[in-house]
Amino acid sequence: MPDAASAARRAATLDIWTGPVEPRPVTGGITNTNFLVEDGGRRCFVRVGDDIPVHGVMRFNELAASRAAAEIGVSPPVVHAEPGILVLDFIEGQTLEEADLRDPEMLQRVVPLLRRCHEGMARHMSAPALMFWVFHICRHYARLLEDGKSRHRRILPDLMARTDALEATIGPIDLVFGHNDLLPANFIDDGERLWLIDWDYAGFNSPLFDLGGLSSNSQFSQEQSDEMLRLYYDREPDDALRGKLAAMKVASLLRETMWSMVSEIYSEVDFDFGAYTAENMTRLEEAWTALRT
Fold this sequence. Notes:
The protein is an alpha+beta fold. Helix content is 50%, strand content 14%. The strands form three sheets. The chain has a five-stranded antiparallel β-sheet with strand order 1-2-3-5-4. The chain has a three-stranded antiparallel β-sheet with strand order 6-8-9, covered by helices on one side. The termini are far apart.
């Protein structure tokens, strides 16, 4: 990832601007360097970032997903793209937090947006497109952590045993094109509608991974998770569906924990990944214990 100063220079010198611009940093991301640029009355979001192979982030896929999401009306239009650069219309609105997603009225808005994504994205994706299979990713992370002599190497056998057990619990899946990174901050409410942004990890997957990520990242109660399933599947969830969701919630937390472990040794971003690993490990252990009881 380029440093902030060079990223700002790159954002400022794009040939799409009608005159001189002054990119303003947009905080909150820990994978990319982002800016707000005002040009001739238009406000644009500029993302500067190259491929991140250790995390499977490939910008051609992010661009294709961003364009598909815009076509089905869940994300802002792509204004411009070139290697290492993605420019979108800037969305004025409130970035959601965990508590927002636990609100029943907000959940009734979020789940239909997610279903529209799952039902529509694949029809608008340009080939090739990636698959995001969380269990493959966890095994990939384990290899990186071993090769990088991570301080977490001693627990890798246990994490891989959990990976195998969770994958067996999930079993055969339905396949949709998902977002795969449903952190609350990736939803924006502009006062009239919701937007879903940041397609770095987009790819074909089980719908349960997005549902599990939504539930785990927002710390849903069992009742809130059940309501999410009712809204998504338009039926009362049975024990089998609840069990698969619970397993995918654990898988989501396992992947986020291992993502942070890998970032501890490979990322150059100024962020306390050690603390983030500890936070996610606590959530992972709680979810793993609940799954087995």
